[in-house]
Amino acid sequence: MSHFEGCVFRPEVPEGIDLKKSRILLHCCCAPCSTAILEWMVEEGLRPGVFFSNSNIVPYEEYTKRRDELARYAASFGLEVVDDEYDHAAWLEYVRSLSGAAVSGPERGPRCLACFGFRLLRAAKYAATHGYDILTTTLASSRWKDLAQVDSAGRLAVKETDVIWWNQNWRKGGLQERRNFLVKSCALYNQTWCGCEFSSHH
Ligand code: SF4
After folding, report:
1. What is the distance between the alpha carbons of residues 183 and 177, in angstroms, rounded to a whole number?
2. Whether domain 19-185 has CATH 3.40.50.720
3. Angle at 160 between CA 159 and CA 164, to 5 degrees
């Protein structure tokens, strides 16, 4: 069912999964990317865990700013944010080791794939140890991201766990437009760069 005008969103649910009977962990990168997704989930009666794991973001003040803005938005649905440990040095070491000389290259390259991997691995681990059945991410709502990279990082992240990866394009079915509306109407802080020291301003 659509809950707002123009919403024809239909989830692409993993086979055999009943969302209403599942515990969903939603990895959230920031408030703007989470807006329409969280709203849709809550209106469907789904109460996801909201997991903020984004050690890619620098400086730390920017990290807390994005986290607190997400917490403000999630609170409007009565949801609390789980704030993962912030460790930018570990993130940097991980993406450097996986992307080598390409670490300072353009977005959508090897650095970003490693970055998704770092964050989704942590999310998958949290999901597995806290009784969640399914993991999905708001990273797949941003038009700046390569959805195939998000999917491959997600698949890999859950590999050693019983958690099911929910690969979902969250830009479809009116959610992109709804996101833009909600960012404005809730007066959310909307950053102009992805997060790490290599990301360029959009
Ligand atoms: S540009 Fe964004 S997705 Fe890519 S490595 Fe930096 S923070 Fe991660």
Report:
1. 10
2. no
3. 50
